[in-house]
Amino acid sequence: MRSITVRLAKTSHTLGGIMATLILSTAIMSPAVAADIPAIYNDSCAACHDSGALNAPKKGDKAAWSALKQKKGMPALVNAVKSGMIQMPAGGLCEQCQDDDYRQLIDYMSK
Ligand code: HEC
Question: Using a 6 Å CB cutoff, which residues line ligand 1?
Answer without folding.
Answer: 44-45, 47-49, 54-57, 68, 72, 77, 80-81, 85-89, 92-94, 97, 102, 105-106
